[in-house]
Amino acid sequence: MKNIFSLTIVSIWLATVNAEAKESTCYGTTKNGRLENGVRLPSSGNNFISYSTAPELESRTYVHSIVKKVVVESYEELNLLNPQKLFKYAETGFKSGGKFSPHKTHQNGLSIDFMVPVMDKNNNSVYFPTNAQNRYGYDVNFNDQGVNENFKIDFESLGAHIVALNKASLNNNIELWRVIFAPDLQSKLYDTKYGDYIKNNVEIPTKKSWVRHDEHFHVDFKIKCKLFLKN
Q1: Directed axis angle between helix 65-81 and helix 155-171, to 10°?
Q2: Residue-wise over 48-58: b if at least 16 C-beta within 10 A, else e?
Q3: Going from the N-terminus, what domains does the chain have, and what CATH number goes with each?
């Protein structure tokens, strides 16, 4: 009985490894598409965690396999730059893509939300607060200086993260298509030491989105996807 149980565990593990080893295939666009062989982002690393276990269990943290590589490599680079800085990612998409409420995109594995890196009142880097009560961080707001009653946006770390994502994308032969971040806070980002690089290499629209994007920044990657035909 013990041997059968052990073999079952090994079989499940091997099936998971094999599934993760397959490269994903994206179809259509971020607004109208799907995903094959989506992979789950790791729950945590040396300097990052996901936004909550509950959404993970609801399979809301899947991306294209190359996007996963880019995200992990960017965190590794950030850890080398400053291991004291902490980061948190949020919504990504379903394993098979498709409509991902309440988002208008996140449908083909190429979209991901990152909570903005924050510091507490003592200027210590801390994880962005995410729980069911604040809608996993999406109900948190900052003023036009990037400050609220408990935290302030760490714009230097935000800039470092965007640069690391762009460079990791290039290293993996894909493109960081765009970053959506609150227009009224973009000047604070450009005032960092990463501002010039971001202006010259990353598209950040100045037009207001349907939500402000002050508590998180949305990233879309560009990979050649197959044609998506609806059933």
Answers
A1: 130
A2: bbbbbeebeee
A3: 24-222 (3.30.1380.10)
Core vs surface per residue 71-81: b (16+ CB within 10 A) or e:
bebbbbbbbee
> In DSSP terms, which residues pair with 88 in a beta bridge?
49, 115
The pTM is what? 0.88
SS3 of 65, please?
Answer: helix
Q: How far is it between the farthest Cα atoms of the chain?
A: 64
Calpha distance 226→231 (Å, rounded): 15
- Residue 163, both tokens: 């640069």
Distance of CA 124 to the CA centre of its chain: 22
Say if residues 88 and 126 touch (Cβ distance below 8 Å): no
Full 3-state SS string of 103-165:
CCCCCCCCEEEEECCEECCCCCEECCCCCHHHCCCCCCCCCCCCECCCCEECHHHHHHHHHHH
Tens digits of per-residue pLDDT, 13-70? 444 444 456 899 999 999 999 999 999 999 999 999 999 999 999 999 999 999 999 9
Quote the pLDDT of residue 231: 52
Residue 5 has a pLDDT of 44
Tell me how far apart the alpha carbons of residues 76 and 89 are, in angstroms, rounded to a whole number: 14
Q: Are 140 and 215 in contact (CB under 8 A)?
A: yes
